[in-house]
Design the sequence.
């Protein structure tokens, strides 16, 4: 029985398998972006009354930094058993000029990474249970 | 170097850091009694109590000011309780200072203490999809060391820092902590031993990441007039910074997994971490060139290097040179973390910023024993609490 692919959190990213995008907000007056989009007003000072629109964010950016976790994080992280080290990357989105963290897509050697290189958004499995495969955004290097 | 906005630190006291597993109130009371003894005053003379809250010890921890006042014996003294994560102690000190400077009291006790669980600091239980602290663990498995790892790796790729440099910081501080009776880890580590410890958040290893500890620290703050009746030359507080970031803050920080966007509004001239000490320097009317020593928040060995730059000891990218030249070792130009730092203490959140100030006071009085910085006259602490809390205190003598 194949598991159903569901987002690990609703409404934060598109489920386009080839070109997924994070979903954020843009304050139309100051031009500032927000992710996640749970801001109650524009957090740009002086723009609390600005109209906001939901937007899809850029898919690419530059690697700000990265690290590999060698220890199992505590709950509410759902870690596979046995635990496998995984890499977390922080990427500065080109257009939005904001840094967004995400896990590195599996199968990429962190030793091959370098701060400043171009990265793109992808989707991957965060964890699974008997019924569902929970999907989250991840980062991977832009193919050379 | 004296101005009308100064208050005195008449007494300091600590309960040794460790993993004692007792009630946090015990540690706080121990620290208060030590600070009062050091000041040569009686509990009944205290006119204000500022308590730093602990989030892990139930209701008494949320009302720390009252908890400690009651434990010492109710005298009707006004209390306040505050929480600002790692910056809690500085906020509590600021509350006491402003009360003294406003002429509302002459003598205040500032205290923080914690009892901590084992292992990673984890978010509170329950499914809370609007809490970034919950989300970063659930969606990313981003522990605190994950962030420390990101900063460390960035230094390596941008500035050529090496794992050896990070181990050097830990080894340097361990040689100080061994002489500190309040430190939890009193053992000298070599760089080789550090580099042989288990990898936690690449490139950082177990011995380079701050543990969580039990501990308590207290200071007695007084008006200058009151202090001069007790001592001719008290240590003075010349500046306390409790700044928050200026939008947009594009530096990734716990517990967020995204930053502000700089697409619409330009980033400020001075980033958040640089603004923390800057605000304290402005108040004190001094600059980094005037410092004798600094106590900075080395949540990781690599983070100490970031602080060298953030408090203005050198330009960005030059911290490794300072370290390698021995400038930040005792005996060097500007010793950093002569107490042994968090690497030798482990973090007792609401007590830690106060503990940093205790070290400055001992150093400025020349009472720091084997870890004494010769001729220390001016010291700074720097620290940052998650959710945007800056903290820096400048003490002078």
Sequence:
């Amino acid at each position: 029985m194949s598991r159903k692919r569901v987002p690990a959190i609703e409404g934060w990213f598109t489920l386009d398998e080839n070109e997924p995008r994070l979903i954020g907000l843009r304050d139309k007056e100051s031009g500032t972006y927000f992710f996640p989009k749970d801001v109650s007003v524009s957090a740009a000072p002086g723009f609390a009354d600005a109209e906001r629109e939901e937007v899809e964010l850029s898919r690419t950016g530059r690697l700000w930094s990265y690290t590999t976790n060698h220890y199992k994080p505590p709950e509410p992280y759902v870690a596979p058993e046995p635990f496998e080290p995984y890499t977390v990357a922080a990427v500065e989105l080109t257009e939005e000029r904001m840094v967004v963290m995400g896990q590195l897509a599996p199968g990429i050697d962190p030793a091959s990474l370098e701060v400043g290189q171009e990265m793109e958004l992808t989707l991957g499995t965060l964890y699974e249970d008997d019924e569902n495969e929970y999907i989250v955004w991840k980062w991977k290097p832009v193919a050379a | 170097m004296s101005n009308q906005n100064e208050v005195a630190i008449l007494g300091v006291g600590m309960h040794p850091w460790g993993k004692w597993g007792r009630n946090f109130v015990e540690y706080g009371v121990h620290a208060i009694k030590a600070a009062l003894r050091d000041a040569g005053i009686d509990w009944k003379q205290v006119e204000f109590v500022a308590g730093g809250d602990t989030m892990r010890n139930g209701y008494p921890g949320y009302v720390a000011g009252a908890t400690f006042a009651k434990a010492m014996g109710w005298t009707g003294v006004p209390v306040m309780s505050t929480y600002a994560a790692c910056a809690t102690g500085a906020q509590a000190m600021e509350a006491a200072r402003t009360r003294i400077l406003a002429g509302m009291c002459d003598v205040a006790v500032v205290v923080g203490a914690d009892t901590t669980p084992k292992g990673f600091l984890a978010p509170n239980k329950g499914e809370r999809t609007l809490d970034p602290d919950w989300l970063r663990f659930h969606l990313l498995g981003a522990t605190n060391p994950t962030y420390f790892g990101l900063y460390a790796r960035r230094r390596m790729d941008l500035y050529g820092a090496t794992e050896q440099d990070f181990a050097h910081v830990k080894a340097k501080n361990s040689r100080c902590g061994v002489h500190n009776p309040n430190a939890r880890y009193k053992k000298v580590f070599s760089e080789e031993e550090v580099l042989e410890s288990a990898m936690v958040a690449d490139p950082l290893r177990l011995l380079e990441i701050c543990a969580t500890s039990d501990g308590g620290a207290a200071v007695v703050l007084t008006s200058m007039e009151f202090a001069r009746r007790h001592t001719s030359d008290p240590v003075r507080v010349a500046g306390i910074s409790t700044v928050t970031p200026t939008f947009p803050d594009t530096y990734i920080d716990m517990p967020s997994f995204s930053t502000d966007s700089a697409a619409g509004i330009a980033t400020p001239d001075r980033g958040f971490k640089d603004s923390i000490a800057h605000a304290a320097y402005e108040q004190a009317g001094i600059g980094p060139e005037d410092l004798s020593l600094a106590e900075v928040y080395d949540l990781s060995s690599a983070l100490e290097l970031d602080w060298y730059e953030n408090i203005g000891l050198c330009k960005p990218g030059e911290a490794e040179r300072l370290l390698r030249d021995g400038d930040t070792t005792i005996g060097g130009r500007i010793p950093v973390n002569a107490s042994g730092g968090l690497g030798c203490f482990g973090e007792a959140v609401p007590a830690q910023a106060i503990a940093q100030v205790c070290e400055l006071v001992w150093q400025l009085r020349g009472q720091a024993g084997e870890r004494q910085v010769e001729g220390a006259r001016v010291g700074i602490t720097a620290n940052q609490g998650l959710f945007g809390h800056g903290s820096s205190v400048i003490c002078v003598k």
